[in-house]
Amino acid sequence: MPDKTPKGKTANAETLSLDLSYISEVVTEQDITALYPQVKSALESLLNKTGKGSDFLGWINLPFTVEKQLPAIKKAAAKFEKCDAVVSIGIGGSYLGIRSTIEALGGSEKIHYAGNQLSPTGFNHLIEQLEDKKVGLVVISKSGTTTEPAVAFRILKSWLEKNVGKKKATKRIVAITDESKGALKEMSDQEGYETFVIPDDVGGRYSVLTPVGLLPIAIAGFNIAQLLKGAQAAAKDFQSTDISKNMAARYAAARYLLFKKGKTTEVLANFRPELHYVSEWWKQLYGESEGKEGTGLFPASVDLTTDLHSMGQYLQEGQRNLMETILWIKSEKKDIIIPKDKDDREGLNFLAGKKLSWVNEQAMKATSVAHRDGNLPNIRLSLDGLNEYSLGYLYYFFEMACGISGTLLGINPFNQPGVEAYKKNMFALLGKKGFEDLGAQLRQKGV
Ligand code: PA5
C-alpha cells in the first residue's frame, strides 16, 4: 500500500497527528532522521530501565497496571455522589492533571480546588462557596508533607468536623498518598480515612493516570475507563522502537534539534480556553523534567486567539529563541453558525452562515504560517476531538516524549532537586524544627 502520509507528517494513530512541516526551515526531515539512532537508544533506555531515574518509570505501563484499581476507584467516587461539593486538595502533580482533565472535558461545578496556593483571599472565597453545601474532601500528597496541601487540609478538615461532626467528616474524606510513609499516611491510619496509593515508582507530574487523577475525575462524572483506554492505545503506539512511526519519539527529536539550534523556549499554543490547564499540566511535566543542570527548553504557554492580542507581538517579532507547539483540536461537540445581519454595519456578512470553528481554524492556520515566516518554527499536534480517550492518548504522548527528550539532554528527567531550595528556606523562615541554623543564616542575610 502506498504511504499516504504527507511529507513532514506522521499519522500512526487516528487520535493524534504530528505535522513537522512548519519547522523545516530550521530543522529538516533529514536532520530528524539522522537523530533516529540516538532517539531509539533513549527510548530503549526507558523501556529497559537502564537510564537515569530508572526507579521512576512506573508511568510507562501504568495505563495497563492501574486498570485493576478501577472498580475500587469507582466505588470510592460513588460515595461522593451525595456530596454537592468535593474539594480536591493538592499541588503540582497532585493537582494539575486533575484540573487539566476536568476543565478540558467541560468543567465541573462540584469539584473545587485547594492546597495549590497560600492566599487567604482564595481560601476565604472557597469557604464561602462551600457554606450550606454537603462537602467531601479528597486530600492528595505523595510525600504527605507538602506545606500548601497540608495547611489547606488542616483548615478544611477542622471546618468540616465543626460543621458535621468528626464521625461524619471521617466518612467524607479520602486520602491519596504513599503506601507506607509520610504524615498523611500516618494521619489516615489513625483517623480511619479511606486511602489510595500513589505508586513509589511514579513521580507527581506523571501521576494523572494513578488514583491521584482518576478518583477526582471520576467524582466529577467523567469516564476514567475511556481515559485509560486512550492511554493504553498510546502506550502501544509510543513504545514502538520503529522511530519513523513513533510520533512521541519524533516530537522529542524535533524539539531537541530546535533547542540545539538556539530555540530555547517552547510555547504551547492552544485555540480553546478549556485547554488552559492542559498547558499548565504540560508546563509542569516539561519544566520539572528538563529544567536542571543548566539545560532544558523553558516551557511557556498561550491561549489563542486571546493572547494574540497581548503576547502575539512578542511571538511574531521578539527574541528569536522561541519554538511553538500548536495543540489543535479538529472537531467541536457543538458548533455555532455566524448569523446574517441586514444592516451589516461591521461588514461581517461575508462570514454569515460560516461555522465559528471554521473561523477559528483559519485563525490557527494564519498564525502558524505568520509565525513560521517570522522565524518562529511551529510543530502542529492535531487531536481528533476532546474527550476522555483522546486526553488519555495525549497525556501518554507528552509523557513519553518528555522521557525521551530529557534522556536526549543527558539529565535525569524524573527527579526535581530544584524544588527543594525554596521549601528549605520557607521551613526555616516559618520556624520548623530542624531548620534553625538555616533560619539564622537567612536572618543574617537580612531576609
Ligand atoms: O512532580 C512533583 O513531584 C511535584 O510537583 C509534586 O507533585 C508536588 O510538589 C506535590 O508533592 P506531593 O504530592 O508530595 O504533595
Please render the helix and strand layout as text.
Elements: E1 9-10, E2 16-19, H1 29-47, H2 62-65, H3 70-79, E3 85-89, H4 96-104, E4 111-114, H5 120-130, E5 135-141, H6 147-164, H7 166-171, E6 173-177, H8 183-191, E7 194-197, H9 211-219, H10 224-238, H11 247-260, E8 265-270, H12 276-290, E9 298-303, H13 312-317, E10 322-329, H14 356-373, E11 378-383, H15 388-409, H16 419-430, H17 436-444
Parallel strand pairs: 3-4, 3-5, 5-6, 6-7, 8-9, 8-10, 10-11
Antiparallel strand pairs: 1-2, 2-11
Helix pairs in contact: 1-11, 1-15, 3-9, 4-9, 4-12, 10-15, 11-15, 12-15, 16-17
Walk me through the structure.
The protein is an alpha/beta fold. It folds into two domains: 16-56 and 227-409, 3-Layer(aba) Sandwich (Rossmann fold), CATH 3.40.50.10490; 62-225, Glucose-6-phosphate isomerase like protein, domain 1 (Rossmann fold, 3-Layer(aba) Sandwich), CATH 3.40.50. It has helices at 29-47, 62-65, 70-79, 96-104, 120-130, 147-164, 166-171, 183-191, 211-219, 224-238, 247-260, 276-290, 312-317, 356-373, 388-409, 419-430, 436-444; strands at residues 9-10, 16-19, 85-89, 111-114, 135-141, 173-177, 194-197, 265-270, 298-303, 322-329, 378-383. The strands form two sheets. It has a six-stranded mixed beta sheet with strand order 1-2-11-10-8-9, with helices on both faces. A five-stranded parallel beta sheet has the order 4-3-5-6-7, with helices on both faces. Helix 1 crosses helix 11 (247-260) and helix 16 packs across helix 17 (436-444). The protein is globular, with a radius of gyration of 23 Å. Residues 1-12 have low confidence and may be disordered. The structure holds 5-phosphoarabinonic acid. 5-phosphoarabinonic acid is lined by residues 91-94, 141-143, 146, 149, 203-205, 288, 416, 419.
